[in-house]
Amino acid sequence: MAFKRLLILIIVAIGFGPTASLAQTAPNPQPELKTIQPVVEQPTGVEALPLVKWDAIDVTVVEGQDVWLALRTDTPIETTSGIKIDIQLYTSNASNGADINDDFESEITLPQTNQSRNNQITGYITGTSQVLYIQLRTIPDTIIEPNEIFFVDVIISNGTIESRGNRATITIAKDEKFYPAFANWQGCQDVNEPANNTAAGSGILAISGGACTSDFVGENAGTSSAVDYYRLSSATNGNLSLRLKNTTPDQHNFNLYLYKYNPSTTRYDLVAQSTNDNQVDDLINLAIVANTSNDNGLYLAAAYWATSTGDKTPTYELTATMQ
């Protein structure tokens, strides 16, 4: 009887033991797999770079006259440094290619800051002006020759150039009498009435850029609107000579004022004036400081139509030079 009980225990051990062992070593059930999509921030819109436009890309100038080019943007400029523009001169190997330093000077001038470099220079379109002016000089000679051309190329680092491209073509013509449609480029820009009747709408006056010829058409003497404003600045400290030439002295009297921008108050302060009563030219000589990134060296000239004794159109010439 004892033997039978022992045999039953052995059979039970043999029958159930492996099952228990397998149960202990069997792998756990695999968890349910779920596909998890990554969360990706979708762009709400591509931020467009500022678009820069030429005033003109085909300019003709009479030999010996200055060339003015302008690059503008209507896009608000968010960066403090502005839109960076690299400018370089090129000419052509063709027969109509102008010769550098024979037909045109290698010097490029940026009149807003009065910076000059040979062959290439870097300028900026800032939120203050929304425009960059480029001034070039052609060289007169006595040689009878056909029209000649040279080029101004620009590269814009943090903006885009308009569809007409990054190259402006300058044509130098020999004689003005054969080309009556030529623009009369002069030492100022953006001075049409009534845009320059306020400081905010002031034109640009180039230092050592030649005479700026203008008038007071549509204005009334002795009133707050009878004033033309011009911004000017220099890249270096120096002595500014500002002259207002009265070209209608028989009937009109003009006055000249000079203001300096104050970054602390964001206003212009009067720093000099010339108010001759006998209708002669007005002159201001003043030591000025170089312009800086906060416009601490930005100046504003104001030509004022003080009195009138006739109905002739009041005209004048305004020039700025450094000594």
Automatic annotation (TrEMBL):
Q: Which SUPFAM superfamilies match?
A: CalX-like
Is this entry keyworded Signal? yes
Which region is the signal sequence? Answer: 1-23
Record keywords, A-Z:
Signal
The organism sits in which domain of life?
Answer: Bacteria
Q: Which InterPro entries match?
A: CalX-like_sf
Stated name of the protein: Calx-beta domain-containing protein
Name the source organism.
Herpetosiphon aurantiacus (strain ATCC 23779 / DSM 785 / 114-95)
